[in-house]
Amino acid sequence: MDPQHPNSRGERGLEVAAALGRLTQEHRDVLRECYFRGSSVAQAAHTLGIAPGTVKSRTYYALRTLRLAIEELRDVK
After folding, report:
1. Which residues contact 45 (CB under 8 A, 6 or more apart)?
2. Which of 4, 8, 37, 67 is 20 to 30 Å from 43 at the Cα level?
3. pLDDT digits over 8-26, tens only?
């Protein structure tokens, strides 16, 4: 897959969207706060009403699950 090719970027976006759909709501919420909204761990914890350590652990497990889901989706092709 050529990352510079427009179709490759579109395919990657579809892979990420499909992989995000496999995450739990709690994991999606943490990723949304930390990566899409740019919140710090402390801000995300406050917004989500959870401890900062929980934000960190959910982020870790969400990214791990996301990576594995993308790898699995690529293996299916």
Report:
1. 51, 52, 54, 55
2. 67
3. 778 888 888 999 999 999 9
Residue 56 counted as domain residue: yes
Q: Going by C-beta distance under 8 Å and a sequence separation of 6 or more, which residues neighbour residue 31?
A: 20, 23, 59, 62, 63, 66
| CATH number for position 47 | 1.10.10.10
Q: How many domains does the chain have?
A: 1
| Distance (Å, whole) CA 20 – CA 52 | 22
pTM (two decimals): 0.79
Return the number of other C-beta atoms located less than 10 Å from residue 19's C-beta.
Answer: 18
Domain annotation covers residue 1: no
Structural domain boundaries, residue 17: 6-76
